[in-house]
TrEMBL record:
Its EC number is 1.11.1.6. Belongs to the catalase family. The keyword Heme applies. It catalyses: 2 H2O2 = O2 + 2 H2O. Residues 1-30 are annotated as: Disordered. Residues 10-394 form the Catalase core domain. One of its GO terms (molecular function) is catalase activity. SMART domains: Catalase. SUPFAM superfamilies: Heme-dependent catalase-like. Coiled coil: none annotated. Residues 1-26 have a biased composition (Polar residues). This is Catalase. Transmembrane segments: none annotated.
Length: 485
């Protein structure tokens, strides 16, 4: 069988391969010769084909698409991709579960990651959120401990409901997110049929230096659909890649999923008087107080050509900002600004942003040099320090973040608000009777394996404070009474 020159098999250094079916041996029986460098290269590369999986959000699916602005929001932000209606920006999205490993099932009860990379003409902007508007904790210092509870017991290597509910019961700020997770929304029908949220509060700044606080909402145009728990469990065994398959097949068939992006906008001064701390990621802003404003449409219209190169090597950081979009003092966000990029430096390498899937489509000029996997020209012979007298790239004063006032003692302190119950109770009361029954059933099923009655009773107390009916129904399901205090 002959091959055209374009299909000639080569080594990784470009030399043609003479035999890819038989290793080089001393005679027909061998032993194998160490001089068979093609064999050594194949085996050595194979041993290194897997980069470390993500500590969280290991299992994911991704797609390419575009974002099209549909509203003029230049009075709020100078971000170029939001500058005018009709402007299209290429983007890539990665959906994921949170707690499971790379080979885990798609249809488990878990939040879903919703990470969007916008390839803007002023650099990449990453919006790294979830399919929920809130989170379990509000300070990054608790994140490693929280994720440990979602992982496996160090002795049994099994999931540990004792740790899960012990942590949640000792962290009442988690109640809002726990209620969402245990509701119907805890298992989306597909990745196409769920909303996405930036979750955190961010800052938008316009061309005049005027700033506002902002929250992002991606509303699915396919409608929200969720999976029955029994169907989800069946799919987890029969087709653990159900969501991944559904997304790929829909796009391949030309059924392009889309989301409408909205924002809530809060004037800076309202942060001092709003009834909930607007930087507390365990809370939402009422849409009656800050209505949704349409921003644009996100459409997914192209599948990855290679999963590893595009989905597995895609790196996102909430610290990847562009002019006009900045951080807020949200404590959870502040920790993520460091942790995400640091995870990528460990997992993929110091030059992860030079990989094709992560590389900005705008010009890149900096003084970072060397490091593993440097795949570009490494700056050539250009000037490699700053300041310099050789015309190297220099700072742009207009790109400086907008200042905002901070004050207070340097201390380890909690948020001022300890009302962890109002919004969780409001959510419970919004549910229909059928939805409440399923919520309680899901919670009871998840808490039954917990060994310590103390943990169950402590958690029931939180449910009761959110809504007395909520607490009583969970207690009845567990065969317990609501604690007196």
């Amino acid at each position: 069988m002959t091959h055209s020159p374009h299909n000639k098999l080569t080594t990784s250094w470009g030399a043609p391969v003479g035999d890819n079916q038989n290793s080089m041996t001393a005679g027909s029986r061998g032993p194998t010769l160490i001089q068979d460098v093609h064999l050594l290269e194949k085996l050595a590369h194979f041993n290194r084909e897997r980069v470390p999986e993500r500590v969280v959000h290991a299992k994911g699916a991704g797609a390419h698409g575009y974002f099209e602005a549909t509203n003029d929001l230049s009075s709020y932000t100078k971000a170029s991709f939001l500058a005018k209606p009709g402007k299209r920006t290429p983007m890539f999205i990665r959906f994921s579960t949170v707690a499971g490993e790379l080979g885990s099932a798609d249809t488990v009860r878990d939040p879903r990651g919703f990470a969007v990379k916008f390839y803007t003409d002023e650099g990449n902007y990453d919006l790294v959120g979830n399919n929920t508007p809130v989170f379990f904790i509000r300070d990054a210092i608790k994140f490693p401990d929280f994720i440990h509870t979602q992982k496996r017991h160090p002795q049994t290597h099994l999931k540990n409901p004792n740790a899960v509910w012990d942590f949640w019961s000792l962290s009442p700020e988690s109640l809002h997110q726990v209620t969402i997770l245990m509701s119907d929304r805890g298992i989306p029908a597909t990745l196409r049929h769920m909303h996405g949220f930036g979750s955190h509060t961010f800052k938008w700044v316009n061309a005049h230096g005027e700033a506002v606080w902002v929250k992002y909402h991606f509303k699915t145009n396919q409608g929200v659909r969720n999976l029955d728990v029994d169907v989800a469990a069946k799919l987890a065994g029969e087709n653990p890649d159900y969501h991944t398959e559904d997304l790929f097949n829909a796009i391949a068939a030309g059924d392009f999923p889309s989301w409408t992006l909205y924002v809530q906008i809060m004037p800076l001064q309202d942060a001092d008087t709003y009834r909930f701390d607007p930087f507390d990621v365990t809370k939402v802003w009422s849409q009656k107080d800050y209505p949704l404003i349409e921003v644009g449409q996100m459409v997914l219209n192209r599948n990855p050509d290679n999963y590893f190169a595009e989905v597995e090597q895609a790196t996102f950081s909430p610290g990847s900002f562009v002019p006009g979009i900045e951080a807020s003092p949200d404590k959870m966000l502040q920790g993520r600004l460091f942790a995400y990029s640091d995870a990528h430096r460990y997992r993929v390498g110091a030059n992860h942003n030079s990989l094709p899937i992560n590389r900005p489509q705008s010009e890149v000029n900096h003084y970072q040099r060397d490091g593993q996997m440097r795949a570009d020209g490494n700056g050539g012979g250009s000037v490699y320090y700053e300041p310099n007298s050789y015309g190297g790239p220099a700072q742009s004063e207009t790109a400086k973040p907008a200042a905002y006032e901070v004050s207070g003692k340097a201390d380890s302190v909690d948020y001022d608000s300890h009302d962890h119950y109002t919004q969780a109770g409001d959510l419970y009361r919004l549910l229909s009777e059928e939805e409440r029954a399923r919520l309680v059933r899901n919670i009871v099923g998840a808490m039954l394996p917990v060994e310590k009655a103390e943990i169950k009773l402590r958690q029931i107390g939180h449910f009761y404070k959110a809504d007395p009916e909520y607490g009583r129904r969970v207690a009845e399901g567990l065969g317990l009474s609501v604690p007196e205090n």
